[in-house]
Amino acid sequence: MKRFAVLLVPEFRLQAVLRHSPLRPGVAAALVDRQERKAVVAECNAAARAAGVSAGLVQTQAMARCPNLLVLSGNPVHERLAQEALMHAGEAFSPFVESTAPGVVTVELPPEREWREADFMESAVRPLLSVGLGVCIGVAATPDLAAVAARNPRPGSLPPAGYRVTLIEDADAFLAPLPVAKLQPGLELLAVLDLWGIRTIGQLRALPREEACQRLGPEAVRLWKLAEGGEVRPLKLVRPRELFAEKEELEYAVETLEALLFLLRRLLEKIAGRLAAAWMVAGRMRLVLHFDQGPCYRHVFTIPEPTCDTELLFRMLHTHLEGFTSDSPIAGLELEAQPLPPLDKQGDLLDRSVRNPQQLAETLARLEALLGPDRVGIPEFLPSANPDAFRMRPFLGAGAERQERAAPIKAAHLPGAAGDSHAAPIPTGMPYLCFRPPPAAHVALEKGRPAHLHSSEAQGAVRSARGPWLLEGNWWDATHWSREEWDVELDNGAMYRLVRLKTGWVLGGAYSFHRERSGLPPQSMSPSIST
């Protein structure tokens, strides 16, 4: 037998705004709409209703009844995020989810399972409460009856925090005592039924159906179907976006780190709660800060070991923002997590791994804040003719993808290997050591060729010179570079590479064989690829 569940958020627009407001629970709040230059109360919470505030009052009347009333305006962005959170909660039961109306989601439940109130409390009510949304759930044989059950819970079906789960087994017994107004008929039809003395749904169903529908019109036919429990209809299925994000538009700009971290932690707790409810973890986080003036600031955090732990994720944000400064106050912020399925993998005895990836990520973040983001990472050569062209690759990205080990090359397969008497020897060059950074050099030329070298690393007359070798690249843009290289041998037998750049001559490096014979100190030399 098919069963449907309706997840309904009371005062949806107000709750969508309140969940982004740093207010203590229990404050009286109302959401107003602007109508013909008047602010009219559209929704109010229980604390405001207890003070005498109700929908339809003008703002001044509501403030007179409740002087401490918090007056808010609707926010379409917050409503969209709240609706997505509600749809994700519905997906915990079934993939067949319909976004019926703002604050209302209908779910077709799997028929092979017996559903209990505790199942909905654990999978929907508590996860939604953790992200600031209170929900009422109705479960019945038809979508319409489930919606009526969500709006009108049975007495005594109040779980903690005042949010309700109502399971309907006997539709007639549930509907009969309810007022006809609970079926939401038109005002004219409701007035006619009131004149007839029809107050409850049971009294309505006691009337002759055909005669009553002929006199009341087509709207009564729809009303009668609802009074009988509705009918099973196909749902207009939607697939909620896999987007775990929260956005905050601030009423007052934030200028201090403490206030910013307070807001970010609240957003992060909501995202982490939604990830945990969906059995997902965060692989990356994207932070966007909007300022009163100027362009926004964006940063992407790569999480070394995907998690939904609020403390670990917040520590990454805190570490990064400790060294952040801006010229303008922050007027809004966005936080988004990229969801990934949790990965359980067995350790490899032959693989080296980081003992604590989160601590390593925090250390790297502190180094980036101290030195700059372009000075921390793994140097990687660029596919360029420029021998000094490189980039810094993020350290954590280097080990993220498992690289297969290359098969060892057997010596017998190499030309000139042991046991191959007919193979020619492999040609090899002398080891070349680069200077980092290359020291400046003064080079005297004779007929366009180096004749004498003077630098902090080497001095002397040039005995022989080979070159020049001209290199050039990126002539089409602002990163154009060019260099002229010479290999020279000094009168003491040492061999060096001279490089002429746009800024002048530098000593690029030395050939180690002759450098050892020259007796010069090797402290400033770093190994490079042999030539």
Could you give a short account of the major beta sheet?
8 strands, antiparallel
Strand order of the largest sheet: 16-17-18-19-20-21-15-22
> CATH topology of the domain at 244-342, which one?
Dna Ligase, domain 1
Structural class: alpha+beta
Number of helices: 16
CATH class of the domain at 244-342: Alpha Beta
Which homologous superfamily in CATH is the superfamily of the domain at 244-342?
DNA polymerase, Y-family, little finger domain
* Rg from Cα: 37 Å
Contiguous uncertain segments of 5+ residues: 156-161, 398-419, 514-531
Give the mean pLDDT.
Answer: 81
The helicity comes to 25-40%
- Which outline best applies? elongated
From the N-terminal CA to the C-terminal CA, the straight-line distance is: 78 Å
What is the architecture of the domain at 244-342 at the second tier of CATH? 2-Layer Sandwich
Strand content: 25-35%
**Number of extended strands:** 22
Question: Can you give a write-up of this model?
Answer:
It is a single chain. Helix 1 (12-18) packs across helix 4 (76-90), helix 4 (76-90) runs antiparallel to helix 5 and helix 12 (257-277) runs antiparallel to helix 13 (310-322). Among the domains are: 29-74, MutS, DNA mismatch repair protein, domain I; 244-342, DNA polymerase, Y-family, little finger domain (Dna Ligase, domain 1, 2-Layer Sandwich), CATH 3.30.1490; 360-398, no CATH class; 432-527, no CATH class. Strands 16-17-18-19-20-21-15-22 form an eight-stranded antiparallel β-sheet. The protein is built from 16 helices and 22 strands. The model is unreliable at 156-161, 398-419 and 514-531 (pLDDT under 50). The protein is elongated, with a radius of gyration of 37 Å. The protein has helices at residues 12-18, 46-50, 59-65, 76-90, 117-130, 143-151, 171-175, 187-195, 201-205, 209-216, 218-227, 257-277, 310-322, 357-371, 395-398, 512-518; strands at residues 3-8, 29-35, 38-44, 70-73, 97-101, 104-109, 136-140, 165-167, 244-254, 281-291, 297-307, 330-340, 378-381, 390-393, 432-435, 441-446, 449-455, 459-473, 481-490, 495-501, 504-511, 525-527. With 531 residues, the protein is an alpha+beta fold.
